[in-house]
Request: fold
Amino acid sequence: MILELHLIREDKLKVLLTPFDMMKYELTCETLDYDNTETRKAIWNILDYAKHETGFDAAIGKIRIEVYPEKSGGCSIYITKLKKSELPSVNDMNETNEKLPL
Reply:
């Protein structure tokens, strides 16, 4: 894999994808959608690799995924493990139509 992994903190990982990585995983920043099965599969393949390389385990609890396009044609993906205090409460969910963090 060419992608770069940077463990920022115990609960935050930065993944840098090159244009080649984007093609390999069939991802684009414009169409990246976690509700899409292929996107979800690609993200979890990347996260499995990250766990092996850095020990960052995103499978425990909820995560937030933020994607930022790079001028090179790749993208930066920030994955943050959420603490219980960062999750919306049931009352918050009734007042908004926002999706829960991943």
Summary: The beta strands are 4-9, 12-17, 63-69, 75-81. The longest strand covers residues 63-69. The CA atoms of residues 59 and 73 lie 28 Å apart. The mean pLDDT is 82.
